[in-house]
Amino acid sequence: MSSEPKMSLRASVRAAQERYEADIEAARQGRREAFAKAQREGLSLREIAEEVGLHTSRIGQIIEGK
User: Fold this and answer.
1) Where do the structural domains in the chain lie, given as residue ranges?
2) Do 45 and 56 form a contact (C-beta atoms < 8 A)?
């Protein structure tokens, strides 16, 4: 395979990875905002944890952005 097609494939792989990472970050931010809103509006960390199957300490970490 010549270097030109490889360069194109490498660029495609990099672009796919960048999209993946952006999607993950957007999902994390959306989850954090949803958890924080639920807590502000009255759900306890325990209630949020029960809904999503995580430990209460992890819910607190997510809300804090950790």
Assistant:
1) 3-64
2) yes
Q: What is the number of other CB atoms lying within 10 angstroms of the CB of residue 60?
A: 15
Q: What is the pTM of this model?
A: 0.81
Give the separation between CA 38 and CA 59, rounded to whole angstroms.
Answer: 11
> What is the Cα–Cα distance from 4 to 6, expressed in whole angstroms?
5
Q: Report CA-CA distances (Å) from 3 to 6, 7, 13, 16, 65.
A: 5, 6, 15, 20, 43
Statement: residue 1 has pLDDT above 80: no
Distance (Å, rounded) from C-alpha 59 to C-alpha 46? 8
pLDDT tens-digit series, residues 19-66: 999 999 999 999 999 999 999 999 999 999 999 999 999 999 999 998
